[in-house]
Design goal:
Number of strands: 5
Oligomer: single chain
Strand order of the largest sheet: 4-3-2-1-5
Largest sheet: 5 strands, antiparallel
Number of helices: 2
């Protein structure tokens, strides 16, 4: 069972592990909305270090307002950015 569902507000946790990771620094700490569940996949952070990638992790498409991601963004207010993120990088957003 997936920990998050489409429409749920989530926040990307802040972290800078000393190893390979797949979550862009510019999106860490930002709050978005789960758009879609892609399914379960082997964890690429484990695979990147010779591990087996297990247990599998749920991969999500998460939508963020561009203005919230880029402080100086001057495009249309309704522009969004969608980022694929694994479940272990997401936490429920406060007030969700």
């Amino acid at each position: 069972m997936a920990p998050f569902e489409p429409g749920q507000r989530v926040r990307v946790r802040l972290d800078n592990p000393p190893h390979h990771y797949r979550t862009p620094a510019y999106i860490q700490g930002k709050t978005g909305i789960v758009e879609k569940l892609w399914g379960e996949f082997r964890n690429p952070e484990s695979l990147g270090h010779g591990g087996d990638g297990l247990p599998k992790k749920v991969l999500y498409a998460v939508k963020f307002p561009q203005a919230d991601v880029w402080g100086s963004y001057s495009g249309p207010r309704n522009d969004t950015l969608v980022v694929d993120l694994y479940e272990h990088w997401l936490i429920p957003a406060e007030g969700a």
